[in-house]
Amino acid sequence: MTTTLNQEEYAKLLLETLPRVIATEEEYQRVLQEVSRLMTLGETMTVEQAEVLELLAILIEEYEDKHYQMKAATPQEILKELMQARDLKQKDLVEVFGSKGITSEVINGKRSVSKNQAKALGEFFHVSPVLFL
Fold first, then answer.
1. According to the model, what pLDDT value does residue 42 have?
2. CATH code of the region 75-132
3. Cα–Cα distance measured from residue 8 to residue 19, given in angstroms and rounded to the nearest whole number
4. DSSP 8-state code for residue 110
5. In terms of CB atoms within 10 Å, which end of the chain has fewer, N or C?
6. Is residue 80 a contact partner of residue 133, using CB atoms and an 8 Å limit?
7. What are the tens digits of pLDDT across the range 64-118?
8. Is the CB of residue 123 less than 8 Å from the CB of residue 106?
């Protein structure tokens, strides 16, 4: 199902965010903040906001590729980052993992994420379950 982009709303969002090639750390931080703000919208995100989010993510990736030597993130690091971006606590994920104990062990790296948990996390965060495996 293809949803039509509202050109007027998209243009308004572009004026608000002013996306451009990131050249400085300050601009990088500004764009990261904008991405965090958009990600907090979750399922209420409009098609236009999703388009801007994708554009900003591409700009961030380009900047990071040039300026940071990124090591591969562990599933726990990805989970913690997603939790932080959405201001979530461990208790907010108990339903995903089934118990407080398992939630704590996974978040603290004492237990790996199972395939079923990865699927549930992918659905919860609206990302690919592969990130957690």
1. 86
2. 1.10.260.40
3. 16
4. S
5. N
6. no
7. 888 877 577 889 999 999 999 999 999 999 999 999 999 999 999 899 999 999 9
8. no
Question: Taking a C-beta distance cutoff of 8 angstroms, is the pair 49, 41 a contact?
Answer: yes
Q: Which helix (H) or strand (E) holds 113?
A: none
| CA–CA distances in Å: residue 23 to residues 30, 64, 126 | 12, 11, 30
Encoded amino acid at 68, one letter: Y
User: If DSSP states are collapsed to H, E and C, what string results for 1-65?
Assistant: CCCCCCHHHHHHHHHHHCCCCCCCHHHHHHHHHHHHHHHCCHHHCCHHHHHHHHHHHHHHHHHHH
What the block records as the tokens of 40 is 């907090």
Q: Which amino acid is located at 106 in the chain? A: V
